[in-house]
Amino acid sequence: MYQCTVTVIRRGLIGGIYSYLVVPEGRSFQYHATKTIFDVSFFIIISTIGLNIIFGIIVDTFSELRDAKWQADQDMRSSCFICSKGSHDFARCKGGFEKHVKSEHNLWSYLFYILYLEEKSRNEFTTIERYVWKLYQKKRTDYFPLYTSLTIKQEDEDAQMSAIVTCVSYLVGKRKELDIARQRELEQLRQRQWEARYAQSRRSRAARMHIQTVRAKQLASDVDD
Ligand SMILES: [Zn+2]
Fold this sequence. Notes:
Elements: H1 2-13, H2 17-20, H3 29-78, H4 96-104, H5 107-119, H6 127-137, H7 150-224
The structure holds zinc ion.
């Protein structure tokens, strides 16, 4: 059975089993018909369908590997491996996503840190190193700054500070405008008061002149009498 299987695979897949298993001379047509059905079945089932299935599996496997690699590359380009933040989150930061994954959350720096802990004596661990080592031993990544970035935090604080400065500047400007308007109103009020006093003094002066004129006329008429 084993030899038969090896022979069929060897002769069937390479060279063709049709020419290897020839029909002995003197056989009936029934024998030839049976041999033909066997050859055609072998050709369809093994040579055509079987090999195509194997080739299809190989092609699908390579396709899946290529898709997985493309997906991994896409993830590495579109999000940070350490904090999982998207590249678009760093669009407003100086240096952008490129600087973040190279300077702030460098994947290799985390790997070197773990290698450094593995090489370091356990008795010389600092508190932070002991904490990271314990999590690493438990295969946990809680020490990764998930969805946290000092760059974005600093950027948010700067944006908040900028908003506060803008708001304070607006309030100071508004206060200055109100002070100027108030000063103008006071100047106008003083001007109106001065004009009122000036008009009053003119009327008083005119009244005194009139009284003096009348008195002079009366005095002149008394002298004539
Ligand atoms: Zn990150």
